[in-house]
Amino acid sequence: MGAGQSRSSNQLVVPQANAALDQLKYEVAQELGIVIPQDGYFGHMATRDTGAIGGNITRRLVQIAEQSLAGQFK
């Protein structure tokens, strides 16, 4: 698999969001001090590191959704 490709069987509801989610992955990893492999293959990374990235992405997405919802009901 090349850089930017994923083995995930998950389908995005909004395929155009793929680039934004990929960017978020790299931002979160950088904030956590985790280096993402240049070839895009995560198989050699520690589960703890990939879990930390995923957990922080989820936390950030929930935060964005909460802010969006709060803005709709003002």
TrEMBL record:
Do the record's keywords include DNA-binding?
Answer: yes
Q: Which GO terms describe its molecular function?
A: double-stranded DNA binding
Give the UniProt keywords, A-Z: DNA-binding
- Bilayer-spanning residue ranges: none
Kindly name one Pfam family recorded for this protein: SASP
**Example of a GO biological process term:** DNA topological change
Does DNA-binding count among this protein's keywords?
Answer: yes
Q: Which family does it belong to?
A: Belongs to the alpha/beta-type SASP family.
Q: What does this protein do?
A: SASP are bound to spore DNA. They are double-stranded DNA-binding proteins that cause DNA to change to an a-like conformation. They protect the DNA backbone from chemical and enzymatic cleavage and are thus involved in dormant spore's high resistance to UV light.
Q: What is this protein called?
A: Spore protein
Q: What lineage, starting at the top, does this entry show? A: Bacteria, Bacillati, Bacillota, Bacilli, Bacillales
